[in-house]
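Journal club prep — side note

Before the paper discussion, L.F. wants everyone to see what a predicted structure for a comparable chain looks like in token form. Sequence:
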Amino acid sequence: MTPVLRASLLACTAVLAVPLTAGPAAAAPQGVPKGAQKVVVVKIVDGDTVDVRPGRTGPVFRVQLLEVDTPERGRCWFRTSSARTAALLPVGKSAYLLKDRDPKDRYGRHLRYVWGATGTFVNRNLVRFGYGRAVLYKPNDRYIDLMRAEQAKARRDGLRIWSGGCDGTGSTPAPAPTRTPPPEPPSTGTDPRFPTCGAANAAGHGPYRRGTDPEYAWYQDRDGDGLVCER
């Protein structure tokens, strides 16, 4: 084997050995926590499962989004939730992953919190706007209080899976929202601050409610209805 061929084989082996837990993201957008790993989105499997790779080349890893459960194939809102994830995590674009205490599930999927290329917290966004439910993957509980608070808002507003209706993509309707949802814990106010509500909405954030969301004070409530950045 020539020295040139041996060097080429060693380089290929190094690429294939890149782990999903390799170093933190560089120059991550606003809203992405420190220690998150930058990856490239390869495929949207469904609303809460995506395939990524640590670089433009190398092995592909399957990621299960933590603390969110979207409808399965054949159920109402499956296509809608999958399309939402595809919009937040465009194939070929960057994403940022953060692990909790248990990095994998029993199926070998990597359990992660995921932020999109613009800094949107995808797990939270899916729950807040009714594309999925908050669910605890023990012992991974870093954001579960926030997720449950966002679910309470989605149920109160009757959004998508909480509307009691179906988007026509499945035969099993979602449950109707309860008349008296449980009290909401206060928001932690972790959204990035944008110059306008339009910019916040474009990044997947809002609405914000007076007395509940600290972000409410950042924007002007022009109609005085207690909500800002409505969609």
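L.F.'s comment for the group: The first helix runs from residue 3 to 16. Keep this in mind when we get to the figures.
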